[in-house]
């Protein structure tokens, strides 16, 4: 029987117009997976708390958060055989797509280091426990905090509202700082990220590869970052409208791949489906076929469902009607079509499970535990490790829902 992770949504939560990992576009029922992941992480055993390091050299480069404060990261140093190996994790946490949402965002940890936690637990792929993270536990593990609202890609400002859109500069400043602290000597490196951070991983993957000599093994892992340009339940394109706002407001097009821009408009080039086939660096895509964030925010958001026909289904897949499941199967088909060309490259990896989940690499229960989701008897951590170390090729695609009984499906009430 599928494991169900329940989240009680407290009353009085605010409405907002920012999107992605922790923050939802509509209401906080869609804070969904990263919030759940954080709570699940804290409830499963004891995890080391890793302190925040601010990047003081960033200010001179104009590499600042939305409110002008310094960006930062959390670094747990590697040890033993992993002392010269690095996992860089790009934090998720949504996007802001207009002035109002970005002004609000700079009053939170997603827009200002003044509000960031001074310490956070490292779990899943960031854990230092070999029992929870068998291949990367002793590597240098770094989480780069996300405070720009455009997946580390924007580069402009709005002086009237005192907004700095400097995601690209933050990315470059963080890389420069870490290279000066030993990452330049890395023998192995993995760039990873979840949700909005998973999108950023795809966008910056080849840049990351370019930091190192050819002798360094460099690969990228995008978790829950395969956001699709899909029609919502009303026939509209909710996520495209959001992305259009992000790209235009933050001048993201300046930092998107030219190979994509030569064939598509800038908004289309913010969608991973138009990027992944041209990424030259080995890339692993980890995604739930019925990604919980996309179900709630892109496919069946309240704005596309004014009569609430999708309300129960959006919160609990077990309450979906046959026609609603049929619609969601169509979304899965679009996802599989989107990775067709990508999957033909032997260097790439793929793990798409038929779960209602989001961000599975950072949760200890889904990354590597006694009852983790599996495909061909391999937990996600083992599949990623086999791919990274070339122990085996990994191109695992689940059969359609409800065949997978190992899912840790997210259910909301």
Pick out its properties.
two-stranded parallel ribbon, disordered N terminus, 19% strand, alpha/beta, 413 residues, 12 helices
Question: Care to describe what's here?
Answer:
The chain is an alpha/beta fold and about 425 residues long. It has one domain (about 5-410). It has 12 helices and 18 strands. The strands form 5 sheets. It has a 10-stranded mixed beta sheet with strand order 7-3-4-8-5-11-12-13-14-17, with helices on both faces. The chain has a two-stranded parallel ribbon with strand order 1-18. The protein has a two-stranded antiparallel ribbon with strand order 2-6. A hairpin with a 2-residue loop joins strand 15 and strand 16 (about 380). The longest helix is centred in the last third of the chain and has 17 residues, at about 320-340.
